[in-house]
């Protein structure tokens, strides 16, 4: 595509084999790679007033040396030189690491100019560069690059200079002119130039803006193209449901739908009616009414002459859902059945037979639903609850059970929108962002561990009213064994404390499923009053009489997870409480506890969590699936992400996009990215 820039860096005059090898260590092989190695920050040489500089910001100041430099060695090559500097009326400290020779160059009453990072608490600048004498304006900005081995930042700047003067003119535009104009974006060549040789901070800002948009647009084009082709090439089922009956069913519900429920129901129904296969994610907070929407979809599916399936992660949950859904659908002559691994022998054979014969309309169960022996007669719709608990493989098997059934994934883990449109960019997303009216909000408190006595007293008060409590145990990452031990310790402690008054149950991942089942049953029948558990409790349990949730070491959990845990209470008509026991050490940790006490909105929390912990930590280490961007930042540049997504969706639908030369650069990129396999290059 761009032969000049795809040459090896040795094509640059002044860069030989040896340098090329060192650059290769930094994954820079071609001229283009070099151009795309962007600075990770800029040294700002503008003189600033310290009063306006924030903690940890970089700053350049001029001042008068106020004390003899003092030099301390530690280790063989490490040293720290400290001076006191009078900057205007501030007396601050300046530290130079590993530059012992400066001791003889700096004397009392000298005027010097230094640049470095400001520590407001210690009134100290850790200097990264020094200029003897007063401030003289040279360059406002200089790029700082991540470098490796023998390559220095200065050296790297020089390579960039050489590369630019020789190859700068070959940098081609890769965005259509119409988009550049629309958003007043810099052209690509100028943008590279301003990233590497900026004069002002505005230069950097504008150059960055261009690359952010470009990266997001390319990424979103790929996702939107995948989505379009997945839809159009899939042979879905057209479900001609009976709208009149569906409306009747909706009005038979014991409540009227919220606006959000109506909206997502319409989105789902129109997918079902279409010839494309539905591939939709339904997000909504715990209790927002997802299951109600799912039930309507299942009803519609049956009126269209198809079978529906609902798959959930645990047996307890399957039972609960089967019970409530059957209650709603049965009056309409719809036959629902439950299938879990606990259902065996004759009963199981009977269900399988009826299912294959098409006598069962809706099947509800755990992943027992996707075993080989389960055959549907005419499967039209598959709904999975708590989507993130199912592996990709399981979802694939399920999809293949019927003739391309429509698939709806439901999740109560609110995923911030920026992540949803990135990670699930090829799926359609529906969001229930509204709670049914009249819900009591759960009161959340943050307490230090030393207040445990008071918390136990509070629990006792609730228990005496006939209520129940959950106690979630400390989480120790990567060690289920320690988690279990923690749960056992807390269990023993509480058993001792409530001895003879209330019964305590214990739940953790090492129990057999029958044991878990037994504990859960006892708790839901109020035979056990306090349930001590590890986080295995998280998914779906419904015990409306439980009104207290105590979470030990709450600072160790993500906000999304805390919110999930909190969602176990507040399910009945009584006021519920969530108590976070935490002694966070960091500001971020304290901030997270505060946010928990301030909001009950899962989406607000998930956005905050993303901000505080970053996209990598949001999904946990294992399954992030996040794309890597060179310049763009999903969290801070979310507006550009939204814009790029809308543009990508619009472009993909335009006839001109597939034909006009103006869009050739975007099309080529799509073909190269593999999103459009088997299509010709142009
Ligand atoms: P989710 O599956 O999102 O956790 P559910 O569908 O189970 O939520 O709904 C939680 C509770 O709220 C259920 O008892 C359900 O009957 C009730 N519910 C659902 N939608 C509404 C509504 N629009 N108005 C009042 N109550 C509702
Ligand atoms: Mg369809």
From TrEMBL:
Q: Which residues form the Helicase ATP-binding domain?
A: 271-432
User: EC number(s) in its UniProt entry?
Assistant: 5.6.2.4
- Among the Pfam families in the record, one is RecG_wedge
Q: Which GO terms describe its molecular function?
A: 3'-5' DNA helicase activity; ATP binding; ATP hydrolysis activity; DNA binding
Recorded hits in PROSITE patterns, A to Z, give:
HELICASE_ATP_BIND_1 (PS51192), HELICASE_CTER (PS51194)
Where does the Helicase C-terminal domain start and stop, copy by copy? 451-611
The record's section on NCBIfam families has: PRK10917.1-3, PRK10917.2-2, recG
Of which family is this protein a member? Belongs to the helicase family. RecG subfamily.
Name of the protein: ATP-dependent DNA helicase RecG
